[in-house]
Amino acid sequence: MNGRRYAEVIVNAPIGKTLHYSVPDTLLAEIDVGRRLKVPLGSRLVSGYCVGLSSDSPSGIPAKKIKDVAEVQDSFLALEPAMLRLTQQISQRYHCPWSDALEVVLPSAVKRGHKTKNVKGLRLARDRNEVAAELPKLSKRAPMQAKALRVLLEVEDGITPRELSHLSGCSLSGIRSLMGRKLVESYELSPREDSLVKGRAPKSPHPPFILTAEQESALNLIRSKLAENKFGVVLLQGVTGSGKTEVYLQAINEVIRKDLGAIVMVPEVSLTPQTIERFGERFDNVSVLHSYLAGAEHNAQWQSIREGISQVVIGARSAVFAPFKRLGLIVIDEEHESTYKQDNSPRYHARDVAIMRAKEEGAVVILGSATPSLESYFNAVLGNYDRAVLTKRIGDRQMPPVEVVDMRQEFHVGRATRLLSHRLEHYMRQSLSKREQIILFLNKRGFSPFISCQRCGYVLKCSRCDIALTYHKRYHVALCHYCHWEAHPPEECPDCKGPKMNYFGLGTERIEDEINRHFPEYKTMRMDSDTMKGRDVHEKALRALKNGEVDILIGTQMIAKGFDFPNVTLVGVISADTILNLPDFRACERTFQLLSQVAGRTGRGPKGGRVVIQSFSPNQYAIVAAAAHDYEGFADRELEYRRSLGYPPFGVMARVVFRGRNEDSVRKRAFRVAKTVQEVGSSNGHRREVLGPAPAPVSRIRNNYRWHLTIKASSHDALADALRKTDAGTIGGVRGIIDVDPYNML
Ligand code: ADP
Ligand code: ZN
Question: Fewest Cβ atoms closer than 10 Å to its Cβ: which of 143, 164, 478, 697?
C-alpha cells in the first residue's frame, strides 16, 4: 500500500456512475464508507457519498488525473453499511439513479445540520379584513400566493414556511414575496411539545392489556420470530377494532427489552393522533416524525435515534430509513395504504423497502391490516409470510351490519337530486334523536366535480390539464385538483354561450351544505383537505367529536382511518362508486378497502352501530363483499381476476410515462421505447408483455402531454432487463419516467 487510498463516490448530480477520488493524508483517519464528502466536479464542489474505498488506483485512470476529496462532512457516519446496501437495492428495484436513493435516506434537516432551537412561524402582517381585501387582485396576478394567503387566513396557530408551502402548493419564494408585500410576517415559534426528542414520557405508563386468545397466539408467533433473531414477515390480519395495535405494542416491548429499535409506520401521522397517543402512553423515548417537523426538531430526533436514545420511531413512509444501528422490528400499520408509495424518484414503496431492510438487518416485519393488499395476502398464501388472524373485535363487539342501498331504485322514486336515500335518512333521524353521532363519507372534496352547460353539455376543463374543474362554493372558484389552477366559474357557456351552467355531482362541501339545510338543528363538521389546514387541526377536530360538539361528521378518506368513537352509531357512505370506475386494475381492491375501513368507524361501543352504503352498482363484488365483512371472499375473487390478466401479485409491473409540450414527439418517443422493449421481450426466455403505448388516462397535465406504456413481467429481474432499454430521462423535450410497482395508473 502506498498510503493513498481511493474513494468511490456517488455525487448528487445526474452523472449515472461512480466517480473516483484520492484521499489526502489529512482525511485518511476520518474517511469511511457511508460518509458524506465534498468533492470537486468540474469547477464546482459537490456533495456525495463514499460508497467504497480501495488502496489500488482505479484501473484505466492515470493517477495524476485523479482529484482529491475536498472535505469529509458531518461528525458522524451518515449511512451504516446496511443502509448503504439498502440504497443500492432501491436503485436496482425502482430503476432510479443510486444518487436518488442515497438522497432520500438522510433528511435534509440532518444534511444541513439544523441546530437552532427557535422555529420560524408565519402570521398575517395586517388586519384580516385588509388581507382578505387583497385576495381578488392577487388571485389574478399570483394565484398560488393567493392560495397561501387563504390558508393563513384559516389557520389560527403558527405555521412554518414549509408547512404553508406544503398546504397551499405555493413555493417558498412565493411566500417570501408575500412577506415582501408586507402581507405576511415571520416570528419566533416555540417548538412543539409533542415532537420533542424524549416524547411525552408517561408519568405512570399504561399497563399492557391481558390479551385475548387470538391476540395471544398472534403475539406468540411474532415472539418466536423475534427469538430467532433473523428476518421474517408476519401478516397480522385483523378486522377493525380487533386489537392489532395492542399486539404491536406488546411486540415492541419485547424488542425494547432486547435493546433493539422498533419502527412503526402509519399512513399519515397527522391522521392518527389516537394511535400515536397510545404509543406515548406505553413507552419512554418515542420519536414521532411529523412531516411538518421544523429543521432543528427533525435533526434532533434523527440524532437521538442514531445515538440509541429513542427506541421507538413512529412516522410515515420515510420512517423506514430511521437510523437505528440495531433494528429489531418494523411494524407497517394499514400496510395496504397507497400513501406508502412515493410518487417522485425514488418511487419506492415503504412496505417493500421495509422488507428489504429487515432482510439486510435480520429484523422482523409485521404487516398489519384489516384488508391486506393482495400482494401481501398472496405471499401469505404461498407461505412466504406467516399469517396471524384476528377474527373478532375486542369485548365481543359485533361487526356492524351493513346495508347496501340501490340508488337506481331511489332514482325511480324521484329522489335523483337528493343525496340521501330514504333508508339513510331514516337511520340518521334515529341516531340523532338518541343524541348519537354520525359519520358521512364521500371520497370527493369540493362542491361539485363538474361544471357543465345546461344547453350543450360542455364541461369546463382546466386550461392546462385534461381534467374537469371542481366547483368550490365557499370561494366561488372552479379549481383544478391536479395543478391548482383556478378560475371564476363563467356565467354563460364558453362554448355555445348558453345562459346556464349547472353544477353536477357531489363533493363533501355540497353534502355539508345540504345536510345543514336538511338538519338545521344539528351541528356538522367537515373534514377534508380544504378544511383541515395547519397544525393540530386534526387533534382539535377529534376533540370536538369526542366531546360531542359535533353531531354529523362529513369527510373524505381523511376520516376513514384511525378513529375510535363509541358514540358513532351510524356510518353512511354517500357513494361507493367513486373509485370503482377508474381505469386502474386496483379499483376493486381500493373500493373494498375503503368501504371496509369506513365501516369500521362504527359499532365500537356498547351502543353498537350500523352502516349504509349507497351505490349505483350494488351487486358489484367489491361492494357485496365489503358489506358482508368477507375479506377472503373478496380476495379469492379478485385473485382470479388478477391471475387471468397477469396483474400483480401474479408477476410484477412497471409503468413508463412520457411527457412533454409537443404531443407528437411524446407519442413518437413512446412508440420507439415500446418497440425496443418488445424486442428485448422476444430475445430471452422471461415472460414479458407490453401494453400500449397509449395516451395516459389524464392525457395532459400543466400543458404537458402524457403517453404511457405498461410492462408486465414474471419477476423484477425480468422487468429490469426491459427497463434498462427504456433510457428514461429527458430526450428532445420529452421526459421518460419509470414507475416500478405503480400505484397511480392515471
Ligand atoms: P385495531 O388496531 O385492530 O383497530 P385496537 O388495538 O385499536 O384494534 O383495539 C381496539 C380497542 O380495544 C382499543 O380501545 C384497545 O385499547 C382495546 N383493546 C385492545 N386489546 C385489548 C385487550 N386485550 N383487552 C382489553 N381491551 C383491549
Ligand atoms: Zn390543471
Answer: 697
Distance 219 CA to ligand 1 centre (A): 14
**How many angstroms is it from 90 CA to the middle of ligand 1?**
35
Q: How confident is the model at residue 199 (pLDDT cuts 50, 70, 90)?
A: very low
pLDDT tens per residue, range 273-329: 778 888 988 888 899 887 777 777 888 889 889 988 889 999 999 999 999 999 999
Task: Give SS3 for 375.
Answer: helix
Q: CA–CA separation, 472 vs 484, rounded Å?
A: 12
Cα of 241 from ligand 1 centre, angstroms: 6
Is 48 in a helix, a strand, or coil? strand
Q: H/E element holding 545?
A: helix 537-546
Ligand number with the minimum distance to the CA of 485: 2
Residue 736, ligand 1, Cβ within 6 A: no
Ligand closest to Cα of 704 equals: 2
Q: Which residue's C-alpha comes closest to atom 23 of ligand 1?
A: 211
Q: How far is the CA of 393 from the centre of ligand 1 (A)?
A: 8
CB 211 less than 6 A from any atom of ligand 1: yes
Mutate to test the pocket of ligand 1, among 248, 394, 561 (most ligand atoms within 8 A of CB): 394
Alpha carbons 431 and 608: distance in angstroms, whole number? 11
Q: Cis omega (within 30 of 0) on the bond before 205?
A: no
DSSP β-bridge partners for residue 71:
38
CB of 603 sitting under 6 A from ligand 1: no
3-state secondary structure of 331: strand
Q: Decide the pairing of beta strands 437-441 and 552-555.
A: parallel
| Any ligand 1 atom below 6 A from CB of 394 | yes
**Ligand 1 close to Cβ of residue 244 (< 6 A):** yes
Q: Reduced to 3 states, what is the DSSP secondary structure of residue 206?
A: coil
Q: For 21-50, how does the pLDDT look when each residue is reduced to its tens digit (9 = 90+)?
A: 999 989 988 899 999 999 999 889 999 999
Taking CA atoms, 122 is separated from 26, 152, 158, 297, 540, in Å, by: 45, 8, 6, 17, 20
Cβ neighbourhood burial of 537 (10 Å; 0-12, 13-18, 19+)? middle
Closest atom of ligand 1 to 246 CA is 6
Which amino acid would we find at residue 564?
A: D
Q: Where are the alpha helices (DSSP H) in 125-243?
A: 128-141, 143-154, 161-168, 172-180, 213-227
Could you tell me if the CB of 209 is within 6 A of ligand 1? yes
Name 70's bridge partners. none
Q: Look at residue 193 and tell me whether its pLDDT is greater than 60.
A: no
Burial of 717 (C-beta count, 10 Å sphere; 0-12/13-18/19+): exposed
Q: Are 479 and 488 in contact (CB under 8 A)?
A: no
Q: Determine whether the shortest distance from the Cβ of 368 to ligand 1 is under 6 A.
A: no
> Residue 60: left if φ>0, alpha if ψ -120 to 50, beta else—which one?
left
CB 215 less than 6 A from any atom of ligand 1: yes
pLDDT tens digits along 649-669: 999 999 999 999 999 999 999
Place of cell 413555493: 171
**Nearest CA residue ID for atom 18, ligand 1:** 243
Q: Which residue has the cell 418517443?
A: 669
pLDDT tens digits along 560-582: 876 778 899 999 999 999 899 88
Start-to-end CA span in the chain (Å): 56
Contact 444, 508 (CB under 8 A): yes
d(CA 692, CA 695): 9
* 92/75 Cα distance (integer angstroms): 29
pLDDT score recorded for residue 158: 67
R_g of the chain computed on alpha carbons: 27
